[in-house]
Amino acid sequence: MTTSDHPSSAGGKQPAIPCTPAGQRLVHVWDAPTRLFHWLMAVLVAAAYLTWKLNWMGWHVLIGETLLALVLFRLLWGCLGSETARFRSFMASPATALRHLRHLFRHEADLQVGHNPAGGWMVLLLLALLLGETLSGLYINNDIADQGPFTEWVSAPIANAITALHEILWDALLVAVALHVLVIALYAVAKGHNLLRPMLTGRKLLPARIAAPQVAPPVRALLLLAIGAAIAALLANYL
Questions:
Q1: Confidence at residue 37, expressed as pLDDT on a 0 to 100 scale
Q2: Which of 145, 142, 148, 130 is nearest to 72 (CA)?
């Protein structure tokens, strides 16, 4: 066949290059509310650390209240939200999570639609630490100027104990966040799994046989966010 006979040279057009490998397609695995929550939490935790270091306690308290509202939203979204955001879709037994981690350094195809078994436990740990940290902040007392809105509801020894717990939970949260980032890096290097891209774009390249998960309507997310914000505001300002 001569150059002029090649299909790619007809009309000067090149053959179309498929966007995805054969037998695969881009699947919408993470909805916008889940992704926004994830990145807002990352920004707000960093902001909480910065305001704590700079002793900008007014901003620190405001960030804490915002974190509480978002955590309450995520708990509601984990029960009523999109399929991959629901706790029942990704919470596995500890034994299953440990078996998954034993294959951490095995390079293999990533067929997980949502959180993997180990990732599900990390989500639960981070949410528990954030909830404990924000709720304990309602009772803190540093014996100088900073008090939570519920400090007067408990005795001084109890308030001081909760303040100590607040500091312990903060340290534990920072360790958990560091571990979370480390594991994401390990997945990228050891397994070849890019966990960040789907959390940014919402889409993931999967075999065509895998069905797309169900996505909850955005109006439901707005309603649950409003409920979480109302509860957080009630706790922080009116009780």
A1: 97
A2: 130
Measured CA to CA, the distance from residue 44 to residue 47 in angstroms comes to 5
Position 217 scores a pLDDT of: 96
Taking only the tens place, the pLDDT of each residue in 66-83 is 999 999 999 999 999 999
Going from N- to C-terminal start, the domains of the chain cover: 22-106+114-238
What pLDDT digit, counting tens, does each position of 155-178 carry?
677 778 888 899 999 999 999 999
pLDDT at 124 over 80: yes
Are the C-beta atoms of residues 64 and 173 closer than 8 Å to each other?
Answer: no
**Judging by beta carbons within 10 Å of its beta carbon (0-12, 13-18, 19+), is residue 121 exposed, middle or buried?**
buried
Q: Would you say 60 and 134 are in contact if contact means Cβ atoms under 8 Å apart?
A: no
Q: What superfamily in CATH does domain 22-106+114-238 come from? A: Transmembrane di-heme cytochromes, Chain C (1.20.950.20)
Provide the Cα torsion 80, 86, 88, 92; round to 10°. Answer: -160
48 and 67 Cβ atoms separated by less than 8 Å: yes
Name residue 27's amino acid: V
Structure tokens at 192: 């070849």
Gyration radius from the chain CA atoms = 23
Q: How far is CA 68 from the centre of its chain?
A: 14
Q: What is the mean pLDDT of residues 44-57?
A: 93
